[in-house]
Amino acid sequence: MARAAVPRRLGGRLRWKPARLTDRRVESQVARTLVFEVPDWPGHLAGQHVDVRLTAEDGYSTQRSYSLASAADGEHVELTVQRVDDGEVSPYLTEDLAVGDVVELRGPVGGWFVWRPEQKEPILLVGGGSGLVPLMAMIRMRRAVGSRTPFRLVYSVRSPEHQLFVSELRLDDPGLDKTYLYSRSTPPQWPRPPGRFTASDLSSAGWPPDFEPTCYVCGSTGFVETAAGLLVALGHHPARIRTERFGPSQ
């Protein structure tokens, strides 16, 4: 049973911690969920991220930032990593890192793009591709603490083969409405043709602006800028739109 996070103060000094891989799960053709055991993990908020550092035998070191996919669960941390074929780190994490191997983590990081269980306003989650990962942490945290805050998820992805967390999102989760949009190919007999999401999609699947929801938008820079702009055009106040974007280099 996941426990609510009691993170250290956001301004505290972060140190690198050894993290041992204890499990890995296939999430899609190109994504894997990595489960790490991190001794003395301070807990985290849904939406935060960590830095991951890899060090080679010759001393060469490199690091990347990844969103936390899990609700707080003691010393266990989950990252869902999507492989970028020409990337330096993600191919190693998704294909080569083996159970028992150790990397270094630093975090949790971030205090703006987070959902806290004490929030009572409606929540709109808008994710593009692997931008679903921190939003999934929010969904899992909501479930873990038994929150009744109403959530709506709008998830845009290239094709069914690229979807993340398929089995889990099929589960009945009262108070969580889910809408899937496919940009390139759809499941058979899908009612909406493939294409980029529109203001109409966000209007029909999201919350009316007068409900004053907090909107969390995560994805590539282009996706985030488009979604945030459409939400503002629909009447959502910019101060209620929180964004997180990722770059192409992993």
Automatic annotation (TrEMBL):
<keyword id="KW-0001">2Fe-2S</keyword>
<dbReference type="InterPro" id="IPR050415">
    <property type="entry name" value="MRET"/>
</dbReference>
<dbReference type="InterPro" id="IPR008333">
    <property type="entry name" value="Cbr1-like_FAD-bd_dom"/>
</dbReference>
<dbReference type="InterPro" id="IPR017927">
    <property type="entry name" value="FAD-bd_FR_type"/>
</dbReference>
<dbReference type="InterPro" id="IPR017938">
    <property type="entry name" value="Riboflavin_synthase-like_b-brl"/>
</dbReference>
<keyword id="KW-0411">Iron-sulfur</keyword>
<dbReference type="InterPro" id="IPR039261">
    <property type="entry name" value="FNR_nucleotide-bd"/>
</dbReference>
<dbReference type="GO" id="GO:0016491">
    <property type="term" value="F:oxidoreductase activity"/>
</dbReference>
<feature type="domain" description="FAD-binding FR-type">
    <location>
        <begin position="14"/>
        <end position="115"/>
    </location>
</feature>
<keyword id="KW-0479">Metal-binding</keyword>
<dbReference type="GO" id="GO:0051537">
    <property type="term" value="F:2 iron, 2 sulfur cluster binding"/>
</dbReference>
<protein>
    <submittedName>
        <fullName>Ferredoxin reductase</fullName>
    </submittedName>
</protein>
<dbReference type="Pfam" id="PF00970">
    <property type="entry name" value="FAD_binding_6"/>
</dbReference>
<keyword id="KW-0408">Iron</keyword>
